[in-house]
From TrEMBL:
Domain of life assignment: Bacteria
Protein's name in the database: Pyridoxamine 5'-phosphate oxidase family protein
A Pfam family assignment: Pyridox_ox_2
InterPro entries cross-referenced by the UniProt entry: Pyridox_Oxase-rel (IPR024747), Split_barrel_FMN-bd (IPR012349)
Length: 155
């Protein structure tokens, strides 16, 4: 990436990242499973400087609760400014187990897309929160003479 394009990327402050996380509810959880990464879409809620999600037993839960750190990413696009943004949270996940902690999480707005028993509450304790915002390039930037010729021949 040249400096010209790099200057268009805005690194978001941690507080701006948390504002975007609070405004969202859907992310992708990246975990390590055996010898490869896996990514799972999930619903989350912000709770006192951490992220909480519900899960059933399975690969996602087992990998999240292993000793390997996890990452969660959310992103979006603002059509009015033609800018995209991305926030990444890295940290460790732990199961919420204490009675009072569980009672506090029951009222969080956690609405998984997939039905079924999702009685396990998991908290991601962030060690790193980063984000960036950048203008989305006009599609014409990526057109080549060959792609234009193909496009013209189909019209």
């Amino acid at each position: 990436m040249t400096n010209e394009y790099a200057s268009e990327v805005e690194d978001l402050s941690v507080s701006a990242c948390w504002a975007l996380l609070r405004a969202g509810s859907i992310g992708r959880l990246a975990v390590w499973v055996e010898d490869h990464p896996e990514i799972f879409p999930l619903n989350y809620a912000v709770d006192h400087g951490s992220l909480v999600f519900r899960s059933a037993e399975g690969t996602k839960l087992a990998a999240a609760l292993s000793d390997v750190p996890v990452a969660l990413e959310i992103d979006g696009y603002d059509a009015s400014s033609a800018q995209a943004w991305s926030v990444v949270v890295k940290g460790n996940a732990e199961q919420i187990q204490g009675l009072q902690d569980l009672m506090d999480t029951v009222d969080l707005p956690l609405f998984p897309w997939q039905a079924g028993p999702k009685g396990r509450f998991i908290r991601i304790l962030p060690t790193v929160v980063t984000g960036r915002r950048f203008p989305v390039a006009d599609p014409s930037v990526w057109r080549t003479p060959l792609s234009e010729a193909k496009r013209s021949s189909t019209d």
